[in-house]
Amino acid sequence: MEDKKPLVSIILPVFNSEKFLHFCLKSLIRQSYKNIEIIAIDDNSKDNSFKILKSFRKQDKRLHVSKNIKKYGFPVCLNRALKKAKGQFITFMSANDTSLSQRIEKQLKYFKNNQKAVVVGVQCVFTDQNNKKLNKSIFPEKHEFIHKSLLSGLSMHFETAIINKFLLPKDILTFKENVYPFFYIDLFMRLLPYGEFANLSEFLHRHRKDTEFQGQSVNYIFSIAKLWLKSLTISDYRLPFSNLFAPLTKQA
């Protein structure tokens, strides 16, 4: 990575997120690493989410906002934001979450010192909707351990990961709707051949858990089984079929 400060694009899909959105945006604009752009796509929210985005836009021109004319879903929002992104590094953000101020700075420092790294995440503190602490992550830090459990969704919180576009072919950063709700897992599995994955040991992100995806296990199992079959064609990836049920209790 060059010594000059590269641009980091933060992709932020938003839908009816007024309760926590202002906390999320504050944590992003207060990052110690300043060369960022925040690309927020509002998926036709019915609450005040878009008003909040426009208000923050007046305060910080690094924030770019747009609103869909109807609800398309997160994969479409993510793809639209990616098309607008100009950064050499890409990261994603949940509108319900917050990041500590040094998160991006410390991740870029890791990239600078590890030229083969293609994805770098961090440790998380998990809370409920009332901000009560539930637990902390114990994500593996080294590539070989992340690789082994990537499909299970237990090796990385994908919305903390920064992706190094320098090591990737053009147009690989796209989200597919037919693997919903495991679109993050699908993307990151496709990045495995292009470099090393890592997690920092520091707790630099707070994630609010929700119950939005619970109660739809039949569709979930079908989607994750398709990913498992696809994974057999990626490098030497071999995850035991029994591990497919882990994401149902973790995340999309």
Outline the secondary-structure elements:
Blueprint: E1 8-14, H1 21-29, E2 36-42, H2 49-59, E3 63-67, H3 74-84, E4 89-92, E5 98-99, H4 103-113, E6 117-127, E7 133-136, H5 143-149, E8 162-164, H6 183-191, E9 196-208, H7 217-231
Parallel strand pairs: 1-2, 1-4, 2-3, 6-9
Antiparallel strand pairs: 4-8, 5-9, 6-7, 6-8
Describe the structure in your own words.
This protein has 252 residues and is of the alpha/beta class. The protein has a single domain, classed as Spore Coat Polysaccharide Biosynthesis Protein SpsA, Chain A (Alpha-Beta Complex), CATH 3.90.550. The chain is 29% helix and 22% strand. It contains seven helices and nine strands; from the N terminus they run E-H-E-H-E-H-E-E-H-E-E-H-E-H-E-H. It has helices at residues 21-29, 49-59, 74-84, 103-113, 143-149, 183-191, 217-231, and strands at residues 8-14, 36-42, 63-67, 89-92, 98-99, 117-127, 133-136, 162-164, 196-208. Strands 1, 2, 3, 4, 5, 6, 7, 8 and 9 form a nine-stranded mixed β-sheet that branches. Helix 2 (49-59) links the parallel strand 2 (36-42) and strand 3 (63-67). The longest helix is centred in the C-terminal third of the chain and has 15 residues, at 217-231.
CATH class: Alpha Beta
CATH topology: Spore Coat Polysaccharide Biosynthesis Protein SpsA, Chain A
Assign the CATH superfamily.
Answer: Spore Coat Polysaccharide Biosynthesis Protein SpsA, Chain A
Secondary-structure element order, as H and E?
EHEHEHEEHEEHEHEH
Number of strands: 9
How much strand content do the residues show?
15-25%
Rounded to the nearest angstrom, the distance between the terminal CA atoms is 31 Å
| Protein structure class | alpha/beta
Label the CATH architecture.
Alpha-Beta Complex
